[in-house]
Design a protein that fits this description.
By secondary structure, the chain is of the alpha/beta class. It is elongated. The relative contact order is 0.12.
Length: about 325
């Protein structure tokens, strides 16, 4: 059965031009359109009927490739909600593709369905294999995150190095000199936010004369309980970048009679408004989720509609929300 790529090769155009010629979403010259439809007739190509139906009702369809790990946290659900709202506000549908970043077979099959005009890729890895695939298959994409070297890529991300620096400065200003970083066991996967956060914490700790301990584990409540047992007697604060582990740590501390923040301060990177529901409410550095997803969708739509942004690089700061989980050491 002929594919869109087969039509593109025969017509001497890109796969996206074939899509635009068939859907009418972008102005294509009559000569190019004639070559495309001649190739369609010669190969007996039939565009996906579902895609045509959706395209007729709206401007187009975008995909959010958000790899499913062990369930989604409230913050991750917030990313999906805001991305969907941003796409709909611009007249586009949004499909959720939750396959893993390294599952290129499934991703290739999804792209082959020819349903989408572009993809926002999340949970970006240090050396993300999806990028080469998107380029090979001529798929427009924007990263919500960054690779080790993001030059030449369209991306939107939280500045996690600045976030980590702010977190440690905040604790140092309040007298803390012995700190644990509680992270996720994802460094082997090259998870960009984790790698950047730990690198900056280590550099800032040396600069401020802070003793920094690191404890990594799965995204689970037990990781937080295990971290509490590993705390040294001199450690007065924890910077956590592991939402479930943060909750596990606080619960374990309560059971052990270790009062927060009187005996242990906790600052979370990445938690959202649900941090206010904990006891005590947790001070957070929270990524600006709505701004991130809106910027990513805006960059992608600009590319899809034929007027890409000159420097499609957006780096935003996390917001410090002070609550009741950090104390000042006199």
């Amino acid at each position: 059965m002929a594919t869109r790529d087969d039509v593109a090769r025969l017509a001497g155009v890109s796969s996206s031009t074939v899509s635009y010629a068939i859907s009418g979403r972008r102005r294509i010259s009559d000569a190019t359109k004639e070559r495309v439809f001649a190739a369609v007739r010669e190969l007996g190509y039939t565009p996906n009927a579902f895609a045509r139906g959706l395209a007729g009702a709206r401007k187009g369809i975008l995909a959010l490739n958000y790899p499913l790990r062990d369930g989604w946290s409230p913050m991750e659900v917030r990313y999906i909600e805001t991305a969907t709202a941003a796409a709909h506000a611009s007249g586009f549908h949004l499909l959720l593709w939750p396959n893993a970043a390294n599952d290129l077979t499934t991703l290739t099959e999804l792209i082959a369905q020819q349903l989408v005009d572009g993809v926002v890729a999340m949970e970006v890895e240090w050396d993300d294999p999806r990028i080469a695939l998107f380029r090979e298959l001529d798929v427009r994409f924007v990263l919500l995150g960054r690779t080790a070297d993001p030059s030449g890529l369209a991306y939107v991300d939280t500045d996690f190095r600045a976030t980590a620096r702010t977190a440690l400065e905040y604790l140092v200003d309040r007298g803390h000199r012995d700190v644990m970083f509680l992270g996720e066991a994802r460094f082997d996967e090259g998870h960009g936010p984790m790698v950047r956060t730990l690198a900056e914490l280590e550099e800032s700790a040396r600069r401020f004369g802070v003793t920094l301990h690191t404890f990594n584990g799965p995204r689970s409540y037990r990781t937080g309980k295990d971290a509490l047992r590993k705390l040294g007697p001199a450690t007065t604060a924890v910077v956590s970048f592991n939402e479930r582990a943060t909750i596990g740590l606080i619960h374990a501390a309560q059971l052990a009679g270790r009062r927060i923040p009187d005996q242990l301060s906790v600052l979370s990177i990445g938690m959202g408004e649900d941090a206010a529901e904990l006891d005590p409410p947790v001070t957070t550095l929270t990524p600006p989720v709505a701004e991130l997803t809106e910027a990513a969708i805006r960059l992608l739509i600009a590319d899809v509609e034929g007027h890409p942004v000159g420097r499609p690089e957006v780096l935003l700061d996390a917001r410090l929300v002070e609550r009741a989980s950090v104390r000042t050491i006199e």
